[in-house]
From TrEMBL:
This is Trk system potassium uptake protein TrkA. Residues 1-123, 232-349 form the RCK N-terminal domain. InterPro entries: K_uptake_TrkA, NAD(P)-bd_dom_sf, RCK_C, RCK_C_sf, RCK_N, Trk_Ktr_HKT_K-transport. Pfam families: TrkA_C, TrkA_N. Keywords: Ion transport, NAD, Potassium, Potassium transport, Transport. GO terms for molecular function: potassium ion transmembrane transporter activity. Residues 143-227, 369-454 form the RCK C-terminal domain. GO terms for cellular component: plasma membrane. It comes from the Bacteria.
Length: 459
């Protein structure tokens, strides 16, 4: 059995331990906070080690001599990098992954050359969250926008609204309403219950609908499920930390951006370093009078991305009350995400759920290329590359209706070279295909992995 060491029992470390232990992987979590480790041991079947993550003796106690992978996600960039160095030099661990937040490190690639810092994969939560928010802004009305096959295919989640052309009608009408546009509804969630869609399924208002389509067709499909929103122009970012700064810089290329920062020194820094077309405002985003004074109601999107969940929630609620069209709040506590999604806050963004998808794609076998956690980790969207041949694989040269997929698994798209295929039951899977799968119950993921993993024992 594969043995993986996770350094750090914070939100990302906990979420990753839960996902990997469910996959049947032998996990050891290291942290200096004994109470966090005790909580993890109570919840999951994993081992824990109390101590400082980069110390050789602690890594030895965690079983580093037998580990195939080390994932360093402590709150310290430096600890994560040093731990990877120790893991390589003393224990020869094959794969080393580090979460590194500071942009200075990312912008100095020579640090991570083969003969320098032995980190095989760098994870930047700020970059991942920024990309996630950017896609939501580019596609008004969406709850999630996920990309596969280097951007050729997108999986989009939207909430069906009263008045949408398809609401109250069967799914088979989708093709009639949009001739020539290839799309497939991969999953529907109705009052937190998963519904396996087919042609006779009737879409209801407030359904959370996930569909697969080429990027150029997202807007057309969205218009079938809800009133199409005008493109966004004015973005307000509450919080000028690492995420807020990166987000403002990225969005300034296409949108009019304002940043609210509470700390005066940080606000001065942002005013000096951000592009000249970004307006930096010194103030408290959770102060109702301040929001009124800066005319928050004229914003199309309000993104609350401070490091305080409660401040993000409160600021988002105030912005919504002032009439902002789309409100997004960065929420670290999973329980808060469950409470807020579909309420006053339009989109609750979970940094750890966005981050673990990138990690799972690297950890998993069976040709897994991309993983996106959905529905607060309860479901997953997976891109897997088909390997093997008709003799060694359970899927190669077989029609989709001949493959024994686990219950709740649906094939959304097949990418074959540059061609995007929205499959039917008679579509045949070929070696080299990139298959986009939607798994409504992540406990079934291990079965999906086994299905796509070639073996000499299969005939």
């Amino acid at each position: 059995m594969k043995h993986i060491i996770i350094l750090g029992a914070g939100q990302v470390g906990q979420s990753l331990a839960e996902a990997l232990s469910a996959d049947g992987i032998d996990i050891t979590v290291v942290d200096y906070r004994a109470e966090m480790l005790a909580e993890l041991e109570d919840r999951f079947d994993i081992k824990t080690v109390h101590g400082f993550a980069a110390h050789p003796s602690v890594l030895e106690a965690a079983g580093a001599q037998d580990a195939s992978m080390l994932i360093a996600v402590t709150n310290s960039d430096e600890t994560n990098m040093v731990a990877c160095q120790v893991a390589s030099t003393l224990f020869n661990i094959e794969t080393k992954i580090a979460r590194v937040r500071a942009r200075d490190y990312h912008e100095t690639p020579a640090l991570f050359a083969q003969d320098a810092m032995p980190v095989d994969m760098l994870i930047s939560p700020e970059a991942i969250v920024t990309s996630h928010i950017q896609r939501l802004i580019e596609h008004p009305g969406s709850l999630q926008v996920l990309e596969f096959a280097e951007g050729r295919v997108s999986l989009v989640g939207v909430r069906a609204y009263y008045g949408g052309p398809l609401v109250g009608h069967e799914l088979k009408n989708l093709q009639n309403d949009m001739p020539g546009i290839q799309t497939r509804v991969a999953a529907i969630f109705r009052k937190d219950r998963s519904i396996q869609p087919d042609g006779s399924t009737v879409i209801e208002a407030d359904d959370e609908v996930f569909f697969v389509a080429a990027k150029k067709n997202i807007r057309a499909v969205t218009s079938e499920l809800r009133k199409l929103e005008k493109p966004y122009k004015r973005i307000m970012v509450a919080g000028g930390g690492n995420i807020g700064e990166r987000l403002a810089e990225t969005l300034s290329k296409r949108y009019r951006v304002k940043v609210i920062e509470r700390d005066s020194e940080r606000a001065d820094h942002l005013a000096r370093t951000l592009p000249s077309n970004v307006l930096v405002l010194h103030g408290d985003s959770s102060d109702d009078r301040f929001l009124e004074s800066i005319n928050v109601e004229h914003s199309d999107v309000f993104c609350a991305v401070t490091n305080d969940d409660q401040a993000n929630i409160f600021a988002g609620m105030l912005a919504k009350r002032w009439g902002v069209r789309k409100v997004m709040s960065l929420i670290n506590r999973p329980s808060y995400v469950d409470l807020l999604q579909s309420g006053t806050i339009d989109v609750a963004i979970s940094p750890q759920q966005a981050t673990i998808g990138a990690l799972l794609a690297r950890v998993r076998e069976g040709g897994t290329a991309t993983v996106h956690a959905l529905r607060r980790g309860a479901a997953e969207a997976i891109e897997t590359v088909v390997n093997g041949d008709a003799r060694t694989s359970q899927v190669v040269s077989r029609r989709i209706d001949e493959i024994d997929f686990p219950e709740g698994t649906r094939v959304g798209a097949v990418v074959r070279g540059e061609e995007v295929i929205i499959p039917h039951r008679d579509t045949v899977i070929e070696a080299g295909d990139h298959v986009i799968l939607f798994v409504t119950d992540r406990r079934k993921v291990k079965q999906v992995q086994r299905l796509f993993q070639p073996t000499a024992l299969f005939f």
